[in-house]
Amino acid sequence: MNLLKLETYGFKSFADKTEISFGDGITAIVGPNGCGKSNVSDVIRWILGEQSARQLRGKSMTDLIFGGTEQRKSMSYCEGSLYFDNTNRLFPLDFDEVVISRKLYRSGESEYSINKRVVRLRDIQDLMRDVGLGRDGYSVVGQGRMDAILNARPEDRRAIFEEALGISKFRVHKNDTERKLERTADNMARVRDIMTVLERRLPTLERQSSDAEEYQRLKSDLRRHEINRFICAAKSSEGEKEAHTAKAAEFGRLLSEKENEITLLRQRYDDIFAGMNSVDDEITALAAEETRLRVILERKAGENNLFAEKLRGGREMAASLRADIERMESENEQAKGVYASAERRKGIGQAQAKEASDERDELICCLSEINEEIDACRERIRQQSEGVLELLDGVAEIKSKKASVLSEKNAIIERLSEINKEESVNSQRMSGLSAAQKGMLTEFGEAKAKLSEASEALKKATAGADEARAVLAKLTPRLNSLNEERLRLKTNFDMLKGISERYEGYNQTVKLLMKDREENERLSDCILGVVANLIRVPEKFELAMETALGGALQNIVTETDTDAAFVIDYLKKKRYGRLTFLPLGSIKPHSFPQRKAFSEKGALGVASEVIGYDAKFSPVILNLLGSTLVADDMDNAVVIARKYGYGFRIVTLDGEILSPQGSLTGGSHRSKEYNILATDRLIEDTQNKLRNVSAELSKIRSEYEKAQENHGRLSREKEKTAMECADLSVKTAALEQKLGGSAALSDSEKDISVRLTAEKKQKQERLSEIDKLIAEFEEEEALRSNAKNERAETSGEEERKLASLNAEKDRLTESFAAAKERYAKAVASVESAEAEIVASRERAERNSALLTSRKEEYEAKLREIEECEAEVRRRSGDTPEAEILKKIESEKAAKQKEKAGFSEKLSETDELKRRKDEEANDLRRKIDKENMLAEKVETELEAMQEKIYEDYGLTYESALLFGEEDYDFSSSAKEISRIKNAIVKLGDVNVSAIEEYKSVKAEYDADCAQMEDLEKALADLNKIISDLTREMVTRFDAGFEKISSNFSRIFSELFSGGKASMRIEREEGADPLDFGIEIEAQPPGKKLQNISLLSGGERALTCIAILFAILRLSPMPFCVLDEIEAPLDDANAERVARYLRRYSGETQFVVITHKKPTMENADRLFGVTMQEKGISKIVSVLLTEAVRHVE
Q1: How far is CA 249 from its chain centroid?
Q2: What is the per-residue burial (b if ≥16 Cβ within 10 Å, else e) of 422-437?
Q3: What is the pTM of this model?
Q4: Which of 67, 472, 541, 942 is most buried, judged by most C-beta within 10 A?
Q5: Three-state DSSP string of 286-305
């Protein structure tokens, strides 16, 4: 590599474009004091990345820009370039020539480039460091640099040797690694915080996911059983229907036969009835004849009237008894019919009750499923709403960025317009240069005034922009911190809110009951709340109250005992389990027995008084805590208990309990996943923190946006003002040059044109980048807007689905009420039939006893009649009337007997007809029953088909695809009932918890993996640092020994005797990389002494010896030396010049000097002159002229 040339413009005193070409060997730059020779060294050092203005002999970087003279205006920027021959590829760049450039504006901003490609400062520093030209080395040795090396602290000198030994790049690598190590540690802390939040959520989600998977498994089993039961029922229903139809046909045939028999019986009944009427007519005629004869015999049988009357009365009584017997027998038969009818109605009512009960149970299951779907739908609607809000925030942020970029674009467009105008003006100026010279003096004065005003405005704009940048730098960490804090608090708040809403930490019965309370208005009216939710416990007393209340925390508070009884009955029906209820109307409050104990040491007050609650619940709280004292610790609690004879219960802040019976309860507390009492407090605290953080975030974000807007505005103003200053500076310089001559003015106008062209290209490139950014912003905004619309549309669908589910729920609720009413009616019908059966049985028993009695009386009366008739006949004698009467009576008796036969046959026929009618009616009922059963089978099949289609979307044909050949139909109903009960017992199931658990688990596993990677990276970085430290120490120790040896030898050569050495100051326990370098020198004829006691020449020569010792070990590509031999006499300067010549074969030297020996050994000489005051110029000089100038 060879340094070819240096170009600079506007750097310090080099106001004009200056070029210095370097050759191999030694290039000397000479000139009188104050002409600007050292500015050559400064500009090389500055181009290579020097950031300290003090090292460049200035107070601030803007001091490097040409500040103007009495004749020239100051410049708005300076620039410089170093050209290197890279044919040997010392630079790792695929170029034969490498140009390193730097540009500095008065705003303090710098631009760096390599081969006209913009790069970072670090890129240049790394490039130089790789070839041994780092900023801490000896590549550029300026005025005072030699003495500073000797005056530096031992640990500061080390950097020079590290640079020379190529260790500085290792130190940079080590520093970068340490910064990565710090960032890795920060990332580990961040990931650990995220893992902590996820670890708290995982157990709950895992349990919910397990419940959801069990629910899905049960639903799958239920689907399988219901589909297969439907298939089996469908297959058997046809057979059942045909069987019932066949039975109905058979019963119809039997009914037809019965009806034929009944027709024949009716004809027989009519014939018998006709015969009996004929006999009645004959009996009537005989009775008339009998009456006539009796009238005749009445006179004769006067004395027999009594017997006749008695006989008549007996016959009437016998007839009455006979009628009673027949009536009772008829009533018995009717009672049997009523009994049979009641039995039939009872069977029908029981069947109807069972059917209504099954329908009611099925509707309950359907309502439960509908409620679950409604809850899931509401949760999806809530999640969609939150997603829409997040997308709206993203769209707003994109619009803000887009507005900022558009503002910058407009500013650039305005500037391009101004540049076009300036180019036009400049072109016109160049074409009409001679015509404009007349008013040049006036224009020059105006331009100077404008430049002065613009410079002041630029200073103000720069200060304002710096201040705005400082505000942004101050607000950015706080804004990021608040965003992270808000995200963390939001996550915690959502998690705690979910815990509270799902009653996490409560037993399953409380969860189920409180969930139903939200949807059951009657339950909501009865239940006032859970004890844990009705009290407000300060954080200090949470453990004490949790211990004191124990299981009572989950007791349910009601208004009255009637409400409690209703809820208990509800728990029984639902089979949710058991709970304890505290009715406000019947619970008895307790008061503290000995209030003097409050003054005892450690006593904090009654438990009911250290917590907050609504006065309405005082009876319950006083009942639970009114007789409990809170103490600070166990020791004081024991003292109080002993003093008051264990007259009340005491609980400590650590959760120990002293009971009135003298027992003590205590020990360690198992950590709980959820603290019931703390949940509401944590929610409130988190909400308050979230509200405060959100408010502060909003405030900081507003301030940040204002500061960002202000910074952008001030930056644009600063850029615009800087451009105006540059334009005015160029304009005044051009006018100034025009005043000196048209040739110089023409060159200035060309420079302005070149600058405007470069700036125009830069602005156009930036404009192209901004257009790409705007396109990206618009695309992202469109994507987010589309996502927002899709989510809103999805949310609308979910809301419509929710309305549909609510309507279905209302329909099922009405069906449930109707089924419940049918069930009640069926039960009432069964009860009525049972009562009628009992009454019929009792009535039949009474009639049977009375009938037996009546038959006995009838038989006795018949005997009595026979006796009376015999007596009458005996008294009648043999009178003809009597004989005739006897004959008539005999005939009448025969006719009566014949009539009784007809009557008996008529009764038998009627009874037979009645039985046949009953048999026919029974057959009709059987036919109706079979037809009803057939219709029921068909209806049930249709209902099952409809349910299967509604639940699973399957027809019979599609359901056959899921059929099982060996399915057990007999046990399916029991299994379906078991599965439904299991689903009900699961309670509310969060089906989305499966995916949420997988997502959170995956995130947690990813964080764990990331943590492992970070830990591995941490170990790798520590190992890299350890390896770098070992490598640096090894290289430094080996290289330093050689440099020290070279230094001793070269020192003796330069001083013509004497001795010197360098050593490493090793300190016990210190970092080897921080060991300092101590230098000892003993010139000839002097004692060994500290270098601070050496003379100026001796110190300079010692430093030069160090320089050559380093060059002997590690030659640098080039080295710039600024008057390093100034303190030396000619003899020593001659020695130094010979050494320069010796090493010039491997190192290219640029030497700024006043010494003749150095000039004589130089291969090329350049002179620096200041023909115009304050303006340095480079001229090529002959050696003789330089020597004469020096002499």
Answers
A1: 69
A2: beeebeebbeeeeebe
A3: 0.37
A4: 541
A5: HHHHHHHHHHHHHCCCHHHH
